[in-house]
Each structure stands twice: as C-alpha cells, then as structure tokens.
Amino acid sequence: MTDPRILVIGDSYMSADVFLRAFEQRGLAADAVTMTIADPTWDTSKIHEFEGDPAEVALVAQGYDVIAFHAAPLTAQVLAALPELRLAGCARGGPVNVDLAAAKERGVRVTTTPGKNADAVADLTIGFLIALVRNVPASVRDVDERVADGRPLAESTFEGARWFGREVKGLRLGLIGYGNVARLVAERARALGATILAYDPFVDPASVTDATIVGDLDTLLAQSDVVSVHARATAENRHLIGAAQIALMPRGSFLINTARESLVDEQAMLEALRSGQLGGVALDVNEPDGPWRELVAEPNLLLTPHLAGATYETLARGADMLASEIQAFVAGDPLRWER
C-alpha cells in the first residue's frame, strides 16, 4: 500500500501527541483527533474499557485506511461504517475495546502492543515487594495518625523495634505466570538476592534457566514467602487465589497483585489479612464489587489505583510499536503483533 491515510485517535490516557511524535520519527504522516468520555449511543456489549462514543469514531475515521488508538471503541457497527479501513492499531496488550471477531469478518487487520508496560509493572511490583516486607504501609499509616493526633514522630532508633521486617536477599518469591512482566520482576528480584519460583502451565520448564518452574500452583504457594500474580485473566481462572490457596501459603507471607482484579478473591484475602495468615498485601487493582472499603482500613494493605503501567516511557513505547507495525504494513511485510 502506498501512502495510506492514517488517523490517530487520542484519549485522556494516551494523547494524540504521543502517537504523532512516534509516527513523525518513523516518517509517517497522520491526522489526529481526541476522544473524550461520553455515553455511547451505539451498542458496546462486545467491548469494554473504552473511551468515547462508537458513533463518533465512525464519523471521524471516514475514509482512512489505518487508525491508531488506545481506548477508542471499535465495534462491529463502527467497522461496518468504515469500508476503507484496512488496519487497526490498538496500543494495548489486550485489545478489549475492539470487536476482534467483527474485524476478522470484515478483513480488517488488528495489531497491538504486547509488553509495552512490562518494565513499568515490574518496577512497581518490586516497589511493592520492598514496601511489604519492610512494613512500609503500616508504618506510614502510623506516622499519619501521629501527625493527625498531634503526637511527636519517632526520635529514637528504638522506635524501629515496632517495625522489624525482612530483607529481600534470601526471600522466596513465587510468580504466578511467567510472561513478559514476571520475567522482568524475576530479573530485578534476583539482582536483590531473592530466590525465584514460578508457576505457568503454558511455559516449558526446559526453556527457563533463570527461575525454578514448579509443576503446580499448590507447590508454589507452599514454598513462597511472597507471591506475586502475573497471569492473564480468563473466565476460567477467576479467583485463582482464594481461601484454599491462601491457606497453603506460609503464615505471615505476602501477596502482590499487579495483574487483574478477578484473579484474587478479595474477601478471602481480607479475612487472611485480619487473621495474620497474610502479613501484608499490595494491590494495583481491586474488584469493584469487592470489600474495598474494608480493605483500605487494613494497616498492612497497600492499594494503588491501577497505575502500574502509567509511565511516560510506556506511552512512548506503545506508540513506537504501532508506528513500526504500520511501517511493516505499508511495506507489505508481516506484522509482528497481529491478533
């Protein structure tokens, strides 16, 4: 294809400017628009986690051969309204805002950006790990309470006796899933002296030389001081970590979830925190219908608002990955991350 018409659709998370800078560096000319949060007027039952109205996408993308976006809704109706569209580039690892079946039916190719946020998520996971084993959540909360009550802060080394923790060196870190993020977590944790265990039924143990791959989840849980969840969420693995699984973990161990909220039964997790079975929990995601009000009251819980992948580097990397895919598409070369 020669000189395709390319449209960039920005949103509140990934601006059009991020795309345009990456495209310009690769010599790609593109037009740009921005989607905003709006109540959809067209059916969105086959997609989720989107921003904008499908009807608006269908309007602004008329006549374009290629569209590049992060959160714009690409439904069957949108695809039907864009007969000239040939390639949709979604700057996400999982294009949940794209009706893939409808795209395939209409011959529209879809490519994505898997692993674009892997370094960012791995960094936060290690931050969570250190914070948990050193009692940072509870100690920071104690400082806040002292300030609120007008009490003096700690002035003596002996105050630290309240907050004895663990060093990362010598810890057994169990990783559930051993894909892009987990391997980077393992690399960072190993540099700090941790021993790495991993469970992933889709990974050939013979192909892994930097971690001990265990044969079943129960073994991983029983042998880990800290368990970090990195599996891809499916309908089949909802609440992969529940009461029975937490009971297998050593008493006082730690749980981290920077993957998807559905992977952990948060009610069971809350009960384990209260009983001391879990010594601490760090979550970057939480179930919207879970006991989050009770969870945030727990002193040994660290909760962030799904910011694991929110770095400037992640955005730039995702835009460049799509730009490289569009270059390949124009040249007639295979797409590296086509769905």
From TrEMBL:
InterPro entries: D-iso_2-hydroxyacid_DH_PdxB (IPR050418), D-isomer_2_OHA_DH_cat_dom (IPR006139), D-isomer_DH_NAD-bd (IPR006140), NAD(P)-bd_dom_sf (IPR036291). PANTHER family: D-ISOMER SPECIFIC 2-HYDROXYACID DEHYDROGENASE CATALYTIC DOMAIN-CONTAINING PROTEIN-RELATED, D-ISOMER SPECIFIC 2-HYDROXYACID DEHYDROGENASE FAMILY PROTEIN (AFU_ORTHOLOGUE AFUA_1G13630). SUPFAM superfamilies: Formate/glycerate dehydrogenase catalytic domain-like, NAD(P)-binding Rossmann-fold domains. Gene3D superfamilies: NAD(P)-binding Rossmann-like Domain (3.40.50.720). Residues 127-308 form the D-isomer specific 2-hydroxyacid dehydrogenase NAD-binding domain. Coiled coil: none annotated. Pfam families: 2-Hacid_dh, 2-Hacid_dh_C. Belongs to the D-isomer specific 2-hydroxyacid dehydrogenase family. The keyword Ribosomal protein does not apply. Residues 49-336 form the D-isomer specific 2-hydroxyacid dehydrogenase catalytic domain. This is NAD(P)-dependent oxidoreductase. Keywords: NAD, Oxidoreductase. The keyword Cell cycle does not apply. It comes from the Bacteria.
